[in-house]
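Worked problem 6 (solution included).
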Amino acid sequence: MICRGIDRQKIFTDQNDYLLFLKRLAALLTETRTSCIAWALIPNPFHLLLRTGNVPISLLMKRRLTGYNALPAARRAYSRFVRSGIEQGRRPDLTGGGLLRSHGGWTGIKALRATGDDQKGDERIWGDGTFVSEVLDKAEERFKEAYRLRARGDDLDPLIKRVAQITQVTPDEIFDSLRDAKRTKARSILCYWATEKLGIPQSRLAQLLSRTQSAITYAVRRGKALVEDNSYRIE
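Solution. The predicted structure is:
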């Protein structure tokens, strides 16, 4: 996605603006389990390539872009921007969208069609079609795995048994109120696999484990590291 400053104004004016933006964005990405695949912060605009996590991208960006408590001023500036655009009338140089313009207009698009060279996005923003295809393939692979496990009947119960087997704790110990290294390990692996493999919302895990959602987020991080370091498999 691209976010531009209203009326071509700079979004970032100094280094502190960049750091504040990144700090708030990192917190939101962690909280919502949204993946940031690529980003570029320019004074105007900024670019983000995101993969949806637990909340829609629109909601995440609404929280990110209203962090400065300047909504009324932004609305007034946007109204001025719209009025200015209306006065300019129709602009042929902006007709057709970015993908059309980046390939030399309809002539370039027709040439691509003739050669069978399909493009998945605007190269100026996302990179070439190969890169975009790889991102889409990874997302589809993750979806197919979750669907396969659920179609097979896998839900939390088989997953809990598998985690208990790996960590040598009982299912009841995973959900009791005590805390020790073995229980923490088991809960972390469970949270990671439940969210990553089965697509179970962290809010549901928070209720089941009687933890806050932020605690579940940290558990997912620990679980990912444990699974990767020890080559654990869900099957």
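Discussion: The two ends are 37 Å apart (CA to CA).
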